Amino acid sequence: MKATWLSVMSSPQQRETRVNHLQARRLIVASILCPALVAGLSACATNETTPNGPVIEIEAAGASSQSGAMEAWIASFQLAHPNVTINYTPSGSGAGRNAFINGGVDFAGSDVALKPNELSGSFVSCKPGTKAFDLPVYISPIAVIFNIHGVSELNLDARTIARIFTGEISRWDDPAIRTQNPHANLPSATITAVHRSDDSGTTKNFTDYLNQNAPDVWKETASDKFPYLVGEAAQGTSGVVDAVANGTNTIGYADASRAAGLATARIKVGEQFVSYTPQRAADAVAGSPLASDRGEGDIVIELNRKTTNPNHYPIVLVSYLISCVSYDDSKVGQTVREFLTFVASAEGQKIAAKSAGAAPIPTQLANQILASISRIG
């Protein structure tokens, strides 16, 4: 009963958060099934059922990198489950994690796994006394996108990228860039480097690559927040893409699924410059170990950013869905389990590849993810 689980919450603030969450959910369901009631009329009753059975509404939020795949996953899943509504708000990884921890959503998308201090805390979204775990269901390259007048191809190594995004290199005809692009007609023009203004897992993965491969230039460790006050800031993946596409002599970084139509740089891996592909991203993940300090069922990839294998693309993003192990509402738990099972399945991964250019989850990793998902209740 609701009174029972509310009474065991650890603080009045958490109890209030959960109560408000439930009230908000009832209003959302009512607005779908009985708009007149929400408008203050009494023309219909708040009967939370449809011809297909009781309505189950799942709220989720988080990484914008997953938004293309998530739209396709939700559409396909809801077609097979007409009594289920899943709402995903691409508010960013940090916002999604915070919403999940504080009980605002049932699961979250994040380009960064939960931190140890987050895991050691409580989760209002979950059954009291239980924890959450990370499930790496979305793999995508991070493309270095550019829009340089008269240039369609560009080679860059990690150190040069780091110097551009710290402001150390400020013009496109700098010798460091010319050396790697001897046949390019590089203009004598100022570089506008575009980065994310919001906390972003894409930024954390991009800055992790730079710190690991050019630590003498990129002195800051991986961070959700872009650490240098240079260039131009833009909100979200779409903001960066728009700023690069609509600017002049621009460069930025974005989930590759959103880079269609833009020129993308080849990255130096070992002794070769390589373009991103979904398969190179998947192979980079397959060649990376799992973190060893996580709890049961919590799967986190420790990406090998320093690979010299040209079949790997090291600027790769692994995006997670963060779920409770146990939910207070068993119907919510069952629905989340079924949806995440679909997402991690071969069918779900094919949908993500087709709709968002995502890389396939390596088979062994997929089996581990599915085993974790099966524990959700």
Describe this structure in words.
The longest helix has 22 residues, at 12-33. Strands 3, 4, 5, 6, 8, 9, 10, 11 and 14 form a 9-stranded mixed beta sheet that branches. Strands 7-12-13 form a 3-stranded mixed beta sheet. It has helices spanning 2-7, 12-33, 35-38, 67-80, 93-101, 116-119, 158-166, 175-180, 201-213, 236-246, 278-286, 330-344, 346-356, 363-373, and strands spanning 49-50, 53-54, 56-62, 84-89, 107-110, 132-147, 155-156, 192-196, 232-234, 250-255, 263-264, 266-269, 272-274, 316-324. The chain folds into 2 domains: 2-139 and 325-373, D-Maltodextrin-Binding Protein, domain 2 (3-Layer(aba) Sandwich); 141-283, Periplasmic binding protein-like II (D-Maltodextrin-Binding Protein, domain 2, 3-Layer(aba) Sandwich), CATH 3.40.190. The protein has 377 residues and is of the alpha/beta class. It is built from 14 helices and 14 strands.
